[in-house]
Design a protein that fits this description.
- With 178 residues, this protein is mainly α.
- The protein has 6 helices and 2 strands, in the order H-H-E-E-H-H-H-H.
- It has a two-stranded antiparallel ribbon with strand order 1-2.
- The chain is flat and about 70 Å long.
- The protein starts with a helix and ends in a 22-residue tail after the last helix.
């Protein structure tokens, strides 16, 4: 079976089908993220160092936690506090641009005034490529509880159909439901 990228590249799937698949995928992601958080919390409260549990497709290992470590969130604020509290030796004076120079429109004007050339210390960020927004319906959980809808969703995602698979002898195995 082709993966989604191959289906798109080969023109085997239209925009409506892709949008349908995307909304189903997002609903599953929401469900799985919530499910994962609950499972992680449960296991973290019951496992101890070096514990490992093996599942069908992976392994869960316990990781010891650790205390928060301090870091400098605002250099200027820290420098001011150090200076005001008798720690002058811990502060050095350096050349820094004036506050107004940090505004994007001022920086753009500066770049233009210098012929558009790159100026050391100035970079660009915050742009965005065109994208799509996904809004999963409010009743998505109830919809996925319907066996028919769940089967359709699994098919859209390239997972087995909603029907249970059985071995030739008719016996069902747990890995068939994955």
């Amino acid at each position: 079976m082709k993966d989604i990228a191959e289906q798109i590249a080969d023109g085997d799937i239209n925009s409506y089908e892709i949008a349908n698949r995307l909304t189903v995928a997002e609903a599953f992601i929401k469900f799985l993220k919530q499910d994962s958080q609950v499972c992680r919390s449960f296991l973290a409260s019951r496992m101890v160092s070096k514990d490992k549990l093996t599942g069908i497709v992976g392994e869960v290992s316990y990781r010891d936690g650790h205390e928060d470590k301090p870091y400098v969130k605002d250099e200027k604020e820290l420098a001011s506090w150090l200076y005001d509290n008798g720690e002058e030796d811990s502060v050095e004076q350096v050349l820094v641009p004036k506050e107004y120079m940090f505004k994007p429109d001022v920086l753009m004007a500066l770049i233009k005034s210098h012929g558009g050339e790159a100026i050391p210390g100035i970079d660009f960020k915050g742009g965005a490529k065109p994208s799509v927004s996904i809004k999963v319906t409010k009743d998505w959980q109830a919809k996925l509880k319907d066996a028919k809808v769940l089967g359709q969703a699994k098919e859209l995602l390239g997972i087995e159909s909603g029907e249970e698979q059985q071995e030739e002898d008719g016996e069902e195995y747990s890995w068939d439901r994955i």
